[in-house]
Specification:
The complex is a heterotrimer. In chain A, helix 3 packs antiparallel against helix 4 and helix 4 packs across helix 5. Chain A is mostly helical. Chain A has a two-stranded antiparallel sheet with strand order 1-2. Chain A has ten helices and two strands, in the order H-H-H-H-H-H-H-E-E-H-H-H. Chain A has one domain. Chain A is globular, with a radius of gyration of 20 Å. Chain B is mostly helical. Chain B has two domains: 119 residues, no CATH class; 150 residues, no CATH class. By secondary structure, chain C is of the alpha+beta class. Chain C has one domain. A five-stranded antiparallel β-sheet of chain C has the order 1-2-3-4-5. In chain C, strand 1 and strand 2 form a beta hairpin. The N and C termini of chain C lie far apart (71 Å). Classes of the chains: A mainly alpha, B mainly alpha, C alpha+beta. Chains in contact: A-B, A-C, B-C. At the A-C interface, helix 4 of A face helix 1 of C.
Chain lengths: 223, 327, 181
């Protein structure tokens, strides 16, 4: 049980597909201009990830090694097409704004990567735990990036849904750069940078108010 | 625990030039004084506000960034002040102050300290800030380029006679204005009686500052000559408005003398500087003549900044006696 | 595995997987297709009503290659027709729905269906200030940028794209209606 939990938990932070492994950068950069699209993309990808993980894990002994990759691709493509049809039928607005990026989940290297390196070698239970963990990790990362970009770029949260929140007041002038591709790169870079810096303590708020003595630990490490 | 000791290890011969970061920075700032005065003359308190806001924003961000990173605070060395002033000179006078401050924060934090501070930055920080504000608030920043036939806030606010007529000159996109053909248009642009951002207006003031820096030896003549020269040649061949218009229009003088020549973000070799300057010129002309943006100085320099490491790599002279690897 | 020889097992497994996938997808397709088609139709109808403000009912017409909509008021009188056309903007195509009064030969309404112009610059083509200038324009107007049409500051290409699309729609409509129906 603990093992299963570990499989699940590593995707959340320690091996987060976006912030640590930098997998699936195409949707990360392209569809995170609002929290809505980020969340939707994350859920859609998670569905494919979990579905493909289960099937690939079940079939791991039936599929000969030579056609492993083609089989995986067909299985992944099947799940992606299901997502594509159903999202267009039941969430037409969001599907329209994601447009081509839903079919493109097929080439998201996160999915093939997990199928290839994990699901195809593990029992179904562990494959599910891993896929759910990675899916949740991917989803929260996309939603988080989308939220930052949406708040700065539109002043709202979850726009285009019934739950739209007006975060910023009247005074706020939306920064349109945040909704554009450069905003994606800036946000991703700054977020990863801050996470890493906080983790290795090379950036610290306390220093701002404390005395300005050099961070000796870091200095010595860098030499 | 450990005091910072600078121990430079290098092969001889060694010579100290007596130059320091402070001295260079403040000299460049001094060279910008004519341009600042010109902008204050033309745009009055709006210019003062922008220059002060950007300088304070840049210095404040430098202070906070260095504190956060735990490195010595060097806000006195003038480099942040210079970035702030340069940024202010690229902004249109009607820009709200807080947008300018935002630009200066981005310039220092994302343009400089993300890369490791002064000397490690790939891009000219002031231009990074300008690019950010430009893309974030496209409407506010394009106010300086009012096309013909549209109501313009500028013309109502600005007291200067002559601005109204010459405003069209700056609009390169629509290029419908024949004003540039007339001598008076060029003359206005030369002394600065045109619309535009603070430091774009007076080519004269900028050239004065640039010549002073050349005289002091702080900038290499190859970059501005390569830059301005290639623009002049290319616009003579390709442009409809002639080289004089393109040389004095927009922020070219500011870019050629003060931004492309930034020591940190330009090549170190002489051949590399030629390549850098001419590359900037080519990109500028392509953007101005064929692109949708009116002004190409910003992106021409930023794009060439990216090539600096590779330019340096291929133009560094071989060490005496070194054999070409695959020769 | 020997070179150049393919084991039949590989073919069989892959074929079975592909067949299962095809069967599954055809079920999903059957289930979702009508819903998707419904969405598309209602989106079009909305756009048609937007450009023919007085219309209450619309009718889909397909004449040769041209697809357009007729708009009728409550009493069943023909108000105008609505059709789509595309112009080339700065970033890509701009799809525009245009409502036209064929009797008085003037533009009734404009709606931008799709565009990918730069936010803050070209995207301002969707603003009413810009679009309203086309309403009431006669087919015989020149539609010349700067003279007849106010251009959005800094977005000449986008403005031109919209104008082109409207002119294109008028030309198409005249082709159909030109000879009298």
């Amino acid at each position: 049980m603990l093992k299963l939990f570990k499989d699940f938990a590593k995707g959340l932070w320690k091996e987060n597909p976006v912030f640590v492994m930098l997998l699936g950068m195409c949707p990360v950069l392209a569809v995170t201009n609002t929290a809505t699209t980020g969340l939707f993309m994350g859920v859609a990808t998670s569905f494919v990830l979990i579905g493909a993980g289960i099937v690939n894990s079940l079939l791991k002994n039936l599929i000969p090694a030579e056609v492993r990759i083609p089989s995986f691709i067909v299985i992944i493509a099947t799940f992606v097409t299901i997502v594509d049809y159903t999202s267009r039928a039941f969430f037409p607005d969001i599907a329209a704004s994601l447009a081509l990026f839903i079919p493109l989940i097929i080439v998201n290297c996160l999915i093939l990567g997990r199928s290839e390196s994990f699901a195809s070698k593990m029992p179904v239970s562990r494959a599910i735990a891993d896929a759910v963990g990675m899916g949740v990790g991917f989803t929260w990362a996309l939603t988080f990036l989308g939220a930052i970009r949406e708040i700065l770029g539109f002043g709202t949260l979850f726009r285009g849904t019934e739950f739209t929140l007006q975060v910023m007041g009247e005074w706020f002038e939306p920064l349109s750069i945040m909704t554009l591709p450069p905003g994606a790169f800036l946000t991703l870079g700054v977020v990863i940078g801050v996470f890493r810096a906080v983790e290795n303590k090379s950036l610290s708020l306390t220093r701002l108010f404390g005395n300005s003595s050099l961070n000796t630990a870091k200095e010595e490490k860098s030499i | 625990m450990k005091n910072k000791v600078d121990l430079t290890v290098s092969s001889g011969p060694h010579m100290t030039s007596g130059e320091s970061i402070e001295r260079i920075m403040y000299t460049v700032i001094l060279a910008l004084v004519p341009a600042m005065l010109a902008s204050i003359y033309y745009f009055d308190t709006m210019a003062v506000g922008l220059i002060v806001a950007c300088s304070l924003g840049a210095i404040g961000t430098e202070f906070i960034s260095q504190k956060l990173r735990g490195v010595p605070v060097t806000i006195g060395d003038g480099s942040a002040l210079l970035t702030g002033i340069l940024l202010a000179l690229t902004l249109p006078p009607t820009l709200p102050i807080w947008m300018a401050v935002l630009g200066s924060i981005v310039a220092i934090a994302l343009g400089k300290h993300v890369f490791g501070g002064l000397g490690y930055n790939i891009f000219n920080p002031a231009l990074v800030g300008r690019a950010f504000v430009g893309v974030a608030y496209t409407e506010a920043i394009t106010n300086m380029v009012p096309p013909v036939g549209m109501p313009v806030i500028l013309t109502e606010i600005l007291p200067m006679d002559g601005i109204r007529e010459s405003l069209g000159v700056v609009d390169i996109v629509s290029s419908a204005t024949p004003l540039a053909e007339e001598g008076i248009g060029i003359m206005n642009m030369f002394v600065g009686r045109t619309g535009g951002s603070l430091g774009e207006t007076s080519a004269l003031a900028l050239i004065l500052g640039g010549l002073y820096l050349l005289y002091k030896g702080y900038i290499d003549w190859r970059i501005p000559v390569g830059y301005l020269g290639s623009v002049a040649v290319l616009t003579t061949l390709l442009g409809s408005q002639g080289p004089l218009f393109h040389l004095f229009a927009g922020g070219l003088m500011l870019g050629a003398f003060f931004m492309a020549t930034d020591m940190v973000t330009s090549p170190v070799t002489k051949k590399g500087r030629w390549i850098f300057g001419i590359g900037c010129g080519i990109i500028l002309v392509i953007i101005r003549l064929y692109g949708n943006y009116a002004e190409g100085v910003l992106f021409s320099i930023l794009l060439m900044n990216m090539f600096v490491p590779i330019i340096d790599k291929y133009t560094l002279p071989r060490v005496f006696g070194e054999v070409r690897a695959n020769g | 595995m020997a070179k150049g020889k393919i084991e039949p097992r590989l073919v069989i497994v892959l074929t079975i997987i592909v067949m299962c996938s095809a069967v599954l997808l055809s079920f999903v397709h059957q289930w979702t297709e009508p819903i998707i088609a419904e969405h598309a139709a209602s989106a079009d109808a909305e756009a048609v009503l937007a450009v023919l403000p007085e219309a209450e009912e619309t009718e889909f017409v397909s004449a040769g290659d041209l697809i357009y909509y007729k708009g009728f008021d409550g009493a069943g009188n023909l108000i105008g027709i609505a059709l789509q056309d595309e112009g080339r903007g700065y970033e890509g195509g701009i799809r525009v729905m245009v409502g036209l009064d064929m009797e008085d030969e003037k533009v009734l309404g404009i709606d931008i269906l799709e565009h990918s112009e730069t936010p803050g610059l070209g995207s301002r083509i969707t603003e009413e200030d810009f679009l309203d200038q086309f309403v009431g324009k006669s087919f015989s107007d020149s539609f010349e940028l700067q003279n007849d049409i106010d251009v959005i500051s800094g977005a000449t290409a986008s403005s031109r794209g919209v104008t082109e699309a409207i002119k294109g729609a008028i030309d198409k409509a005249l082709e159909v209606y030109g000879g009298g129906e």
